Amino acid sequence: MSDIQIVEAPPGVEGSGFFATSLDKAVGLARSYSLWPLPFATSCCGIEFMATMGSHYDLSRFGAERLSFSPRQADLLMVMGTIAKKMAPVLRQVYLQMAEPRWVMAVGACASSGGIFDTYSVLQGIDEIIPVDVYVPGCPPRPEAIIDGFMNIQKLVQTESGRRREDPKYQELLAKYGIQ
Q1: Is the omega angle on the peptide bond into residue 71 within 30 degrees of 0, that is, cis?
Q2: Which GO terms describe its biological process (predicted)?
Q3: Please, are residues 116 and 139 in contact by the beta-carbon 8 Å criterion?
């Protein structure tokens, strides 16, 4: 890793040298390869996700070995498929039960924009009720696209500052969704 260096101790400090790196970078690297996804699958995108977890594509190679089906133990919410408006409060409650920091990935056209279902009963994108970090296009998206979206989440987690969640812009975004 080029970000970690051994630096000579400043005058007056005992020791021959110490490691110098940003704590945010070290924590981000550790978090990005230990994400626990919670799959919220409602239709055909869920089948593609199953293929992604299978031996041919194997999402666990990227640090997502353990799927969590409890929101309190997950830090990545993967919403896949059509979300009916009656299901929206349930999805929002699942999101709110997750501990910070948490990330959201909208997988497929239905979760991203309602897909082909432009009706009164289908939510036209989950970003109407919860903030989304990464969108994965496709109807349904191929497992390669889901892996690419997961890798984008990992890049986001690696580069995210530990104080991002305290940032006024982030607090304003949460207030837009009515989340405190």
Answers
A1: no
A2: aerobic respiration; electron transport coupled proton transport
A3: yes
Residue with tokens 């191929």: 142
Q: Which helix (H) or strand (E) holds 50?
A: helix 44-53
Any idea which residue has 């432009």 for tokens? 118
Structural domains for the chain: 1-32 (no CATH), 36-155 (3.40.50.12280)
Q: How large is the angle between the packed helices 143-159 and 23-32, nearest 10 degrees?
A: 160
Q: Give the separation between CA 133 and CA 153, rounded to whole angstroms.
A: 7
pLDDT tens per residue, range 17-49: 455 567 778 888 888 888 899 999 988 888 888
Ligand-binding annotation for 45, yes or no, is yes
Q: What is the pLDDT of residues 69-113, one digit of tens each?
A: 899 999 999 999 999 999 999 999 999 999 888 899 999 999 999
110 is in an annotated binding site: yes
